[in-house]
Write a structure and sequence with these properties.
With about 160 residues, this protein is of the alpha+beta class. It has a domain of about 100 residues: TATA-Binding Protein (2-Layer Sandwich). A hairpin with a 7-residue loop joins strand 4 and strand 5. The longest helix has about 55 residues. This is PRELI domain containing 3B.
Length: about 160
C-alpha cells in the first residue's frame, strides 16, 4: 500500500470551488475520465458534505495490457477535502489523499510507486481543470447578469425612443 498526499490553495472562495468540484467532469484537461456516477451524497450532522463518486476512465492502454486485466488487482481510494482558508475567506484549501494498493503481482511496491507518480502529475491537471470550470462558471454568471441588465433596459430604451 502506498499513500500519496498533496495540498493546494485556490484563490477562490469555498462556495465557488466546491461548486466547480461538482461540475469538474468532463473537462479538456482530464480526457481519460469518461463518466462520473454519484454513489452517495449527504450532509452529516456537523454540516459537512460527503460525496462518494465513481469515476469511469479510459486510459488508452495497449490491448495486451487490457487482456491481462489488472482491475481486480489495483485499488485507488482518493479523498479530496475542501476547506475555507483559515486566514482568508476568499481562498480555499484543497487536501488530497490517495491510498494505492496493488495485490497479487510481484513488483507491487514498484507499481504502487508508479501509480503515485501518475496521480501526482494528474493532480496538477485536476487543479488546472478546476480553474477552467471556475472560469467557465464565472463567464456564465457574467453572461446571465449582462442578459438580465439588457432585458431590464429594453423597456426604458423603447420608452425613450418613443418620446423622440
Amino acid at each position: 500500500m502506498k499513500i500519496w498526499t498533496s495540498e493546494h490553495v485556490f484563490d477562490h472562495p469555498w462556495e465557488t470551488v466546491t461548486t466547480a468540484a461538482m461540475q469538474k467532469y468532463p473537462n479538456p484537461m482530464n480526457p481519460s475520465v469518461v463518466g462520473v456516477d454519484v454513489l452517495d451524497r449527504h450532509v452529516d450532522p456537523s454540516g459537512k458534505l460527503h460525496s462518494h463518486r465513481l469515476l469511469s476512465t479510459e486510459w488508452g492502454l495497449p490491448s495486451i495490457v487490457k487482456s491481462i486485466s489488472f482491475t481486480n488487482m489495483v485499488s485507488v481510494d482518493e479523498r479530496l477535502t475542501y476547506k475555507p482558508h483559515p486566514q482568508n475567506p476568499e481562498k480555499t484549501v484543497l487536501t488530497q489523499e490517495a491510498i494505492i494498493s496493488v495485490k497479487g503481482v510481484s513488483l507491487s511496491s514498484y507499481l504502487e510507486g508508479l501509480m503515485a507518480s501518475t496521480i501526482s502529475s494528474n493532480a496538477s491537471k485536476g487543479r488546472e481543470a478546476m480553474e477552467w470550470v471556475i472560469h467557465k462558471l464565472n463567464a456564465e454568471i457574467e453572461e446571465l447578469a449582462a442578459s438580465a441588465r439588457g432585458g431590464m433596459r429594453t423597456p426604458l430604451v423603447a420608452a425613450a425612443l418613443a418620446e423622440k
